[in-house]
Design brief:
CATH superfamily: DD-peptidase/beta-lactamase superfamily
CATH architecture: 3-Layer(aba) Sandwich
Radius of gyration: 19 Å
Strand order of the largest sheet: 2-1-14-13-12-11-10-9
Structural class: alpha+beta
Number of helices: 9
Order of helices and strands: HEEEEEHHHHHEEEHHEEEEEEH
Number of domains: 1
Helix content: 25-40%
Shape: globular
CATH topology: Beta-lactamase
Strand content: 15-25%
Length: about 350
């Protein structure tokens, strides 16, 4: 396989498809494509640029996983002891057998607050519950700890946002700081992600894309009331495309994790019969790895296409619409010769 190094016509594809967001491609350390399209604020007609900060949705889980592994590397957390050792879950249905390893690899079996694999809509959680009432990691606990588990820990795999909420609480326990404070200081800082952060949708933060999606009548609807206003361990950090590339560079360069844990991060922890693999946040297939995120008014993919004779291609696709990223990543996969994707 070769990465999507042929970028001829890519700009026209993005413009003709009315794409809203940014695309950044690099081969090794060399940028081979960068483009910004559409509006960061349809309300005010402000265009997206390569400096626009985008909500990353579940790509944020990579930052949470790295934070956990940092604390594991300092012997302040253990991947293989009970999550009850770090989070008070005595009055919940969370099994004492659940570990951080289970949580990071989606093998805990705990029930999610919205079972998206079963077709439940995360936005429907906030019809009767104000989004602004859930802004700290602990605020998610009631909706993450009351439903019966799907399977015993380690006996299956089911994608689970709540698993990362519990991992975030473990980070707060070990670090003595909020999840957001820890990630900003110990992940974003060392990785030189100077433009990244957790920005509250209620605040007038500059250069932050606003999420909008078309309604059936064609009008655009804001995602303001579709999920909590500020990011958490399972999603919602804001980054630029360049900062997301800097994150990967810092990981590869051993800036964020020990050599052993760096290798573990880029290695599938689970393998499946269809050739896919699950890591500590990353997913794998053949010589590709990736993490994607989606929410109302948000979609994005961080992807690496490996090469037999070369460094491979890293790609960042970030959109401030729910459907925006997927046609783009499909086109990039097509250019890379990928016939089977996530």
């Amino acid at each position: 396989m070769a990465g999507p190094t042929k970028t001829d016509g890519l700009d026209a594809f993005l413009r003709n498809g009315c794409y809203t967001g940014v695309v950044l491609l690099r081969r090794g350390g060399d940028e081979i494509f960068a483009g910004a399209y559409g509006l960061a604020s349809p309300r005010w007609g402000i265009p997206n640029t390569m400096d626009t900060r985008f909500d990353t949705a579940s790509i944020t889980k990579l930052f949470t996983a790295v934070a956990v592994l940092q604390l594991v590397g300092r012997n302040e957390l253990d991947l293989d002891i009970s999550i009850h050792s770090y989070v008070d879950l005595a009055a919940t249905v969370i099994s004492p057998e659940v570990t951080l390893r289970h949580l990071l690899t989606h093998t805990s079996g705990i029930a999610d607050d919205a079972d998206e694999e079963a077709g439940e809509d995360y936005a429907e959680l906030w019809i009767d519950k104000p989004t602004y009432s859930v802004t700290e990691t602990r605020d998610f606990l009631p909706q993450c700890t009351s439903n019966p588990p799907n399977f015993p820990p380690g006996e299956g795999r089911r994608y689970c946002n709540c698993g990362y909420i519990l991992a975030g609480l473990a980070i707060e326990h070990a670090a003595g700081a909020s999840f957001r404070e820890y990630v900003i200081e110990h992940v974003f800082g060392p990785a030189n992600m100077a433009r990244s952060g957790f920005f509250d949708k209620r605040d007038p933060e500059p250069d932050v894309a606003e999420g909008f999606d078309p309604r059936p009548d064609g009008r655009l609807e804001s995602n303001m009331f579709k999920y909590p206003p500020i990011g958490s361990p399972d999603g919602g950090a804001h980054v630029t495309a360049a900062d997301l590339m800097a994150f990967i560079d810092a990981l590869r360069g051993g800036v964020l994790l020990t050599p052993e844990l760096t290798e573990a991060f880029f290695t599938p922890q689970l393998s499946f019969d269809d050739g896919a693999g699950q890591g500590f946040g990353l997913e794998f297939r053949e010589d590709m790895w990736w993490k994607e995120g989606v929410n109302a008014g948000v979609s994005g993919v961080l992807r690496h296409w490996g090469e037999t004779n070369g460094p491979g291609v890293d790609g960042v696709v970030l959109s401030n619409t729910e459907a925006g990223a997927w046609p783009v990543i499909e086109e990039l996969d097509r250019r890379a010769g990928v016939t089977r994707t996530s």
